[in-house]
Amino acid sequence: MSGFHKLTIKDIKRETKKAISISFELPNNLKDDFKFKAGQYITLKTEINGKEVRRDYSLCSSPKSGELKVAVKEVKDGTFSSYANNTLKAGDVLDVATPKGRFTFTPNDSKTKNIAAFAAGSGITPVLSIIKCALEEEVHSKVILVYGNKTTKDTMFLNELLALQHQYKERFTIQFVFSQEDENDSIFGRIEKSTVNYIIKNEYKHIEVDAFFLCGPEAMIHTVKDVLTEHNIDADTIHYELFKASKPTEIKEEEEEEEVSVTNGQTKITVIVDDEETTFEMSQKQTLLEAALDKHLDAPYSCQGGICSSCLARIKEGEATMRQNNILTDSEIAEGLTLTCQAHPTTDKIVIDFDDV
Questions:
Q1: Which sequence ranges are marked TM in the entry (predicted)?
Q2: What is the pLDDT of residues 122-141, one digit of tens each?
Q3: 269 and 284 in contact (C-beta within 8 Å)?
């Protein structure tokens, strides 16, 4: 189910003082397995200090490039990001899962489009893949990028973006936003309401945007979405992916007690994964994913924070409630989809299917 393959690191490039890009060698027999859509991510798995660690990283290469490449920004106390930035080297081998993700762009050269992207920090990685794909495969479409960082030195893929802007100067424009540096032709500050208003109502008011792609911290995503909504932008044209979400609200003790009085706090769960069914009893204080992993089932997962959608499953019977949801739409939830890392069962019996997603 997890689809992991051992891949050798072909090259590691220092992108900023705190970020690297990693490209992998891809054997011919795995090229079909690793075909991807612009915007998708791969899960990297390894052991660090004797403990298995999984992390998701968006592909920053274009689908046509034939390159499997991600970027890793080192964060404070980040187990894998620190390991990758300071220890990994070309020739090392990592377990890599096949591409996944719902934040995608599918090119259509028969239709000319205007695309606007808002990215902050390492949120540029899937957006970069989308930009490359649009420029390469939709030869008449135009792309606007609004990209926020602290300084130019902190800006991932700065030179690559400037090269793309030069190569596609009639079709690709960039508005840099720096919060700690005042640069010519850039906006000083953060991507906030005034920034979005300036882009869509002043600088590019003559352009009708067909699709928006947003990637970065949760606060930035909500700010941009809210402003676009205020300007009556169709919600179906706004696509986003969080790179860091706020912490989920803790379940209140009194709510747990109420569930216990109804169902005695236990659920009989059936997990379907890789066409195999496993049934057992679980505590409603556990998430569906935690229960499955405790039984050593090969359920897919990565971030366990409700951001990546790796743990997506369909509820075939019974009900569950999610502590946090930053991905699924109301209609998808109504169809039975759930993020198992966030979902607690609320019925005596539940059946979840990881294969039917």
A1: none
A2: 999 999 999 999 999 999 99
A3: no
Q: Cβ(313)–Cβ(288) under 8 Å?
A: yes
Measured CA to CA in angstroms, residue 275 lies from 1, 163, 258 at distances of: 9, 47, 35
Full strand arrangement of the beta sheet holding 187-188:
187-188, 172-178, 142-149, 114-120, 211-217, 238-244
Q: How far apart are CA 270 and CA 22, in angstroms?
A: 39
Tokens 């352009």 belong to 207
pLDDT band, very low/low/confident/very high, at 197 (cuts 50, 70, 90): very high
DSSP-derived secondary structure for 269-325? EEEEETTEEEEEEEETTS-HHHHHHHTT-----S--SSSS-TTEEEEEES-EEES--
Strand segments, DSSP code E, in the chain are 4-16, 19-24, 41-48, 51-58, 68-73, 93-97, 114-120, 142-149, 172-178, 187-188, 211-217, 238-244, 266-273, 276-283, 312-317, 320-322, 337-339, 343-345, 349-353
For β-strands 211-217 and 238-244, DSSP reports them as parallel
